[in-house]
Amino acid sequence: MDTLPDVSATGADGAPLRLHDLPRPLVIYFYPKDDTPGCTREAQEFSALSADFAAAGVSVVGISRDTVAKHVKFRDKHALSVMLASDLDGSVTEAFGVWGEKQLYLKTYMGIERATFLFDRDAALGQAWRKVKVPGHATAVLEAARARYGS
To answer: Which residues are known to be catalytic?
Structure first.
C-alpha cells in the first residue's frame, strides 16, 4: 500500500466516515478491541497527545471492528479525545492488510493486527508501524509526524 485506500468506516455518530475526506496529514491506528488493557492504554496515549498532534496539523483516528455503541461507551468511560471509527464490514481492515491470523495461548483466531499508518497531505503513505507495542508508541508517531511536517 503506497497511498491511503479509498474506504469508509463508520464514525461515532453512526454516519459513514470516508477516510479520504479526513484532513491530512493523517494518522490511522488499528487496534483489536475496545476497553481491553492494551487498547485502552493506546487510546489514552493518543488522546493525551491530541493537542500536540493538532498543533502539528495532524489528524488522528483509531479504528477497530467494534460497534459504534461500544466505541461511544469506550470513549466516554475513559474520556478519550481521539476520534474512533468502526469497521463493521471489515473492508477497512482488509484494505490496510491488518486483518489476519493471530495466536494467543496456542489458540489461532482471526483478528486485527495493532498497526499505525501516517499519510502525507497528498494521501501518500509516509510511514507505517506494524505489530505495534503500545508503551510510547503514540509519542513515537508524534515525533515522526513532527520530523516529517515540522512544528
So the answer is: 39
Q: By residue range, what is the domain housing residue 61?
A: 22-149
Q: Is residue 72 part of a domain?
A: yes
- Domain of residue 95, CATH code: 3.40.30.10
DSSP assignment string, the chain? --B----EEEETTSSEEEGGGS-SSEEEEE-S-TTSHHHHHHHHHHHHTHHHHHHTT-EEEEEESS-HHHHHHHHHHHT--SEEEE-TTSHHHHHHT-EEEEEETTEEEEEE--EEEEE-TTSBEEEEE-S--STTHHHHHHHHHHHHH--
pTM (2 decimals)?
Answer: 0.94
Domain count, the chain: 1
Q: pLDDT by residue for the chain (151 residues), tens digit each?
A: 899 999 999 998 899 999 999 999 999 999 999 999 999 999 999 999 999 999 999 999 999 999 999 999 999 999 999 999 999 999 999 999 999 887 778 888 788 999 999 999 999 999 999 999 999 999 999 999 999 987 6
Asked if the structure places residue 4 within a domain, the reply is: no
